[in-house]
Amino acid sequence: MFRNIRTFYGFGAGLVLLALVTYIPPLNTVFNSSYKSTPLYWLIAVGFGFLLLAYATARMIVLRKSRPIKWNPTIDGLHMHPTVWSTRHTTRSIELSA
Question: The organism sits in which domain of life (predicted)?
Fold first, then answer.
């Protein structure tokens, strides 16, 4: 949950959008909002966002525990051998260090 930094960027963008809709006068007319509203009403939107994040995290954990083979299935008959193309970056680093 905390490894994906884009989640926190999404929360920040949501809060910025909420502030823009609430406090910019032309957007007040479009969305029928008021700049006089207290930030206490923001807690509803922030709480709902955290509820969605908790649901998505719990769902992912349950799916990983119940069906672990679905996340990384093995492919029968697939034999992968190292080639020049797959080891090029390693051989180049060895040549440079020697």
Answer: Eukaryota
